[in-house]
From TrEMBL:
Protein name: Glycosyl hydrolases family 43
Pfam families reported in the protein's UniProt record: Glyco_hydro_43
UniProt-annotated site: Important for catalytic activity, responsible for pKa modulation of the active site Glu and correct orientation of both the proton donor and substrate, residues: 150
GO biological process, one term: xylan catabolic process
SUPFAM superfamilies given in the database record: Arabinanase/levansucrase/invertase (SSF75005)
Gene3D superfamilies registered for this protein in UniProt: Glycosyl hydrolase domain, family 43
Family, similarity comment: Belongs to the glycosyl hydrolase 43 family.
Keywords carried by this UniProt record: Carbohydrate metabolism, Glycosidase, Hydrolase, Polysaccharide degradation, Xylan degradation
GO molecular function, one term: hydrolase activity, hydrolyzing O-glycosyl compounds
PANTHER family per record: ENDO-1,4-BETA-XYLANASE, PUTATIVE (AFU_ORTHOLOGUE AFUA_2G04480)-RELATED
């Protein structure tokens, strides 16, 4: 359900929505949810109207700062803790503070965020704070070796892994073997799709401990998904969680507007595509996180229902996520079956 609904279709979708925005006083998107000390903290993008026309480069996503939300439970009230980091306080960044994430280590909180430098290239930065709601102080330089967008950090056995990357406006197609090439583009449809990246973080959480590796997503025959397989190939918005000992890598398919997932036996993959988590929402983008709270699982996601379909003015929502006996995620239809 991209942003092509007529007024009647929009109205029907709004009335059948399975959940409501967590907050309505600001627009929020790209929610990364974590439980710290029994409380849920949500790290969203903060959408704003900058008056820039829609384009495939994503220039209309002109966000300038981050707000942190917290909730005592998934059906509780969401509290906005105010500005946690502003682009003016990031020495290397000029604009477009896109989807962030946070990790905790040794009592400190690390906010990871993509932003564009003055030359228009996305890099990923880190800012450090003493409280999950911030404020955060940015490091003077972006993470060495980082590129593209959508960092998502996952802790496993005391190590932290950052997944990242997004195509089109997210610039992932401009990189091969971690090197930028102005002439690089998406592969042809019959070639393997572009792959997200993963890198283990250094002990101080401020850098990569290794060169980023490609995250391979396989089809049911054990072959890498192809670039032309738009309903299954990776586009942006990675997330990792672990359920019953398996690693679940989930992501957005971008131009086919699905959240889907693939499973594997290691945080590095490979992962085998399994199916859909969330069918299309109102608005072009779809982006999520998955977190466990008191033994139940929740999907944090966004749509553009509050703005009546304006694709860069989105609102974060939450709904319960269920698995079947075999560990398959039960697909969710955001506006009912
Ligand atoms: O919010 C800006 C971009 O839109 C994010 O980085 C993408 O994942 C998409 O949701």
């Amino acid at each position: 359900m991209p942003d092509t609904l007529d007024e009647a279709g929009l109205q029907r979708a709004l009335e059948s929505a399975i959940s409501q925005p967590l907050v309505t006083h600001i627009y929020t998107a790209d929610p990364s949810a974590h439980v710290f000390d029994g409380k849920i903290y949500i790290y969203p993008s903060h959408d704003v109207e900058a008056g820039i026309a829609f384009n495939d480069n994503g220039d209309h996503f002109a966000m300038e700062d981050y707000h942190v939300l917290s909730m005592d439970s998934p059906d509780g009230e969401a509290v906005d803790h105010g500005v946690a980091l502003h682009v003016d306080d990031v020495p290397w960044a000029e604009r477009q503070m896109w989807a962030p994430d946070v990790a905790r280590k040794d009592g400190k909180y690390y906010l990871y965020f993509p932003a564009k430098r003055a030359d228009g290239i996305f890099r990923i930065g880190v800012a450090v704070g003493g409280h999950p709601a911030g404020p955060f102080t940015a490091e003077p330089e972006p993470i060495e070796g980082s590129y593209s967008i959508d960092p998502a950090v996952f802790e496993d056995d005391g190590e932290h892994y950052m997944y990242f990357g997004g195509i089109w406006g997210g610039q992932l197609q401009k990189y091969r073997d971690n090197r930028y090439g102005a002439s690089f583009e998406e592969p042809e449809a019959d070639q393997p799709a572009l792959q997200p990246r993963v890198a283990r973080l250094s002990a101080d959480m401020k850098g990569f401990a290794e060169e980023p590796r490609a995250v391979v997503i396989l089809d049911e025959h054990g072959e890498p998904l192809l670039a032309g397989d738009h309903a299954r190939r990776y586009f942006e918005g990675p997330w990792m969680h672990k359920y019953r000992g398996k690693y679940y890598f989930s992501y957005s398919t971008g131009d086919t507007h699905l959240l889907c997932y693939a499973t594997g036996d290691s945080p590095y993959g490979p992962f085998t595509h399994q199916g859909t988590i969330l069918t299309p929402v109102i608005g072009w983008t779809t982006h999520h996180s998955i977190c466990e709270f008191e033994g139940r699982w929740y999907l944090y996601y966004h749509d553009s229902s509050l703005s009546k379909g304006v694709t860069h003015l989105r609102s974060v929502k939450v709904t319960e996520l269920k698995y079947d006996e075999a560990g398959r995620i039960v697909p969710i239809a955001p506006y009912g079956a």
